[in-house]
Each structure stands twice: as C-alpha cells, then as structure tokens.
C-alpha cells in the first residue's frame, strides 16, 4: 500500500506548489507528485534542500523519519561553531595591534 508523504506535501505548499518544488529541486513535476503520493519514496539526498527551501518549516526528520539525521545535525552544528570561532579569531587579530 502506498503511503502519502504529508510532510512533503506541506513543503510543496510552503514553496508555492508542486511545480515550484520541482523547479527548486531540478526535477520533473511528475516526480514531485509521485513522491507525495508514495508511488516512489522521496530520495533522502533531496531532504536537506527541501528543508532549506522551506526555511526550516519542514525538517528532514519529518520528510524521511526512517533515517537518522543526527549526523547531519552534528555536522552542521560543528560547521557553524567553526565559522563563529574563525570569525572571532579574525576579529581579535584585526584589533590586536600592540
């Protein structure tokens, strides 16, 4: 039995519909419709782009709850921390003229 992906359907609504989502992802509108209807499973590699397109209104965990997304979250968190640290270090050195 096919299981409709309500979270992906919601994501499509957030970005302006199935055609808009297809354009954002670089796929055909029928592919988007098949992912919503459960004819084909939404590819996991599309989930981060969908989350970004919805500005976090629909999360990867909602789109594909069968996948452990904690690695993605840790990686993103570490990247952000590194960026902040690098920014702080560069700001400190630019003001350190002793």
TrEMBL record:
Pfam families assigned: YdaS_toxin (PF15943)
InterPro entries: Cro/C1-type_HTH, Lambda_DNA-bd_dom_sf, YdaS_toxin-like
CDD domains given in the database record: HTH_XRE (cd00093)
Gene Ontology molecular function: any one: DNA binding
SUPFAM superfamilies: lambda repressor-like DNA-binding domains
Protein's name according to its UniProt entry: Toxin YdaS
Organism field: Escherichia coli
């Amino acid at each position: 039995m096919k299981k409709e992906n309500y979270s992906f359907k919601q994501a499509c609504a957030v970005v302006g519909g199935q055609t808009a989502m297809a354009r954002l992802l670089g796929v055909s509108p029928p592919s988007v419709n098949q992912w919503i209807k459960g004819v084909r499973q939404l590819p996991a590699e599309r989930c981060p782009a969908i989350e970004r397109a919805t500005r976090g209104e629909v999360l990867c965990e909602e789109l594909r709850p069968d996948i452990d997304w904690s690695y993605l979250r840790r990686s993103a968190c570490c990247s952000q921390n590194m960026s902040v640290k690098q920014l702080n270090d560069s700001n400190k050195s630019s003001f350190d003229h002793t």
